[in-house]
Amino acid sequence: MVGDIWHDVFLWKDRVHVGRRYQIILEVDDILDEIIEDAPLTAFDLLFDNGRDDVHLARSAASWLRQRTMSSSAKRAFSTGILGRVARLRFRRLVSQHCPDLHFDDSDFRIVEGVETDFVLQASEKSKHILNESSKLLPIFGELSAIAEAGGVSLGADLADGGEQGIRPTPTFDRGLPRRFADFRTLGDALEYAARGRRGLNFHDSRGTLSRVYYYSELYSDAVAAARRMISEGIRPSDRVAIIAETGPNYAALFFGAVLAGALPTPLPLPTSFGGRESYIDQIMAQMENCSPSLFLFPDELDDLGRSAAERRGCKAYAFEEFQTIPAIECELPITKPTDACYLQYSSGSTRLPQGILVTHEALLSNLKAHGLGLELKQSDRCISWLPWYHDLGLVGCLLSPIANQVSVDFLRTEDFARRPLAWLDLITRNQGTSISYSPTFGYEICSRRISSQVDVSERFDLARWRIAGNGADMIRPDVMQSFTNALQPAGFKSSAFLPSYGLAEATLVVTLMPPGEGIKVELVEEERLSGTTRDISRPARYRAIVNCGKPVRDMEVEIRGENDETKGDHQIGKVWCRGPSVMHSYFRNSDATAACLVDGWLSTGDMGYMADGYVFIVGRAKDMIIINGKNHWPQDIEWAVEQLPGFNHGDIAAFAVETENGEEAPAVLVHCRVSDPAERVKLREQIMAKVRSVTGMSCVVELVPPRTLPRTSTGKLSRAKAKKLYLSGELEPYILAA
């Protein structure tokens, strides 16, 4: 909005001090930039000269405006620059009323000229020292915060042309900071550059209401303080700092604090609903045993779990808020090289125990640059995400990439998305710029199911500006994407916004991307080609839709290889290998696993696929393949077929191979059963057996299990390997059915 004034104040209080920092950011809107783009800098100097009193400043502004050819609303908007003086006077007046022994004059404040039309009014070192030492400000802490948090409401909302009142998000546009596509030496350098601008992170509650604005400048300041606290606690370069990855400012500051301290932040997952307390502790203990952290940090609400895990491991541990009470000693931060390790990322562990992946600064930034260029980032772009920060797509794609490429982000916690998935679409609707937002297939599926009950989606949602609807982190299902498009088209969603991709943590994040605007493209492939067998001409041909995952990103190579490492040609299925500067250095403390997948700089991804005209098509995970009588069967084909029966959702079925009583292998299918009548259960089992027989051509073992008992990874994906292990060990007990 023309004349929109953004105000923010950063005031902290703890046991020692209050008002550590007081800052008001005044920003004249980008629309106004265009109106007065030819204004000489001397004019701004005149209007915001620190030596003039408020009356003189107002007269200077009026005189200057009379010389301009501007609309009345633009003149009115530009004149709001004097609000900096108003804010200063109000702050001084409020303090003097409650603390008459504290005195402020103009020398206690300075106006710092920022880029273009940005101006920062902040307390001088003298003022900050007075505030730090004064406990008398405690009673008016809330009032001081309200000066800025009320923003344009209390300091001139009448000058703004509408807009919501109260807390304001970080801006989408920032013409004053030239975009750099992650061309930095280190991740710390990337954050320092982003901190020079106005963008940042925005956190929303379970209903999608903005609850916390976190400018990159504030994140950088907090990260420096966190780094100094870590150093005071004995953290040294290359030490591991394990952090429970809760979506919020605390984790962001601690992650970057560890980076600036030269340590390796190691994100650990939050508890999920798929296991109990002991199961969760066992999970993070496996990761902590591998990484041997020198420090363990966790959210306050997980205090009991965190301290139990720390006690078992025998490492120093703090809750987030407790850690902030540690003095941040003044010290020089270590100098980091691009070849140094940046962080330790654990795989989701869907087929094995989680592996720690060492990612260097140069590998990370190479991938982030490729990501930003591949998305063709624009000044109008804004990221919206609900993905967890312990997963590579959430951490790298939706936190580190926006910072390194200077993009503002709106976050919804993963658990809040699970409860109210349509809040995700609400956030995208409210974005006045163009949106970039990623989700695995199941996220789109959940939304399309919820939307079916909406009377008129066009009244609630406006998705016409959703430029990139990314899809990754799991197999992409064209049928789900089509259902989502059908449900959201009335709200302006375009199927061309879909952007399929392929990647893995071992390559930092992204390996391939579809060019923006091309949408989802599929090829229909005969099942015999997928299974590597000769077609039975007596049966009708069956096809599976394989999604085009795009071309390799900048500096990345992809090859398809056969069993003897020979390179395959177009449309020949084989193992997917990739090579590039963002491929991992190694698995942490696992040289055998590293040697098994890294050969001459090439990474064996563990996936099967093929290439065509430079595009990559992913068929499935090699380890998940079910091989029976020499014929290959993909478990997702069986699972998707069963899902077509009424009453099943994505994730309700797990397929794998088992050995039968006669020593032969057969496909086994575990299915969540929500039917209570014994006769109906028997009928359901027969329907499933018939469905699987139509896909595989053979009989299968079908077991009905209680809802929500099939295991999942920390990112919510079905774990077939663990389901098989639990089933064979008897830990996963199916319902007993009549013969």
UniProtKB/TrEMBL annotation:
Ranges in coiled-coil conformation: none
Domain AMP-dependent synthetase/ligase: 216-588
Gene3D superfamilies, sorted: 3.30.300.30, N-terminal domain of ligase-like
GO CC aspect terms: plasma membrane
Residue ranges of the TM segments: none
Molecular functions per Gene Ontology: adenylyltransferase activity
Annotated Pfam families: AMP-binding
GO biological process, one term: fatty acid biosynthetic process
InterPro entries: AMP-bd_C_sf, AMP-dep_synth/lig_dom, ANL_N_sf
Sequence similarity: Belongs to the ATP-dependent AMP-binding enzyme family.
Name by which UniProt lists this protein: Acyl-CoA synthetase
Species for this entry: Erythrobacter longus
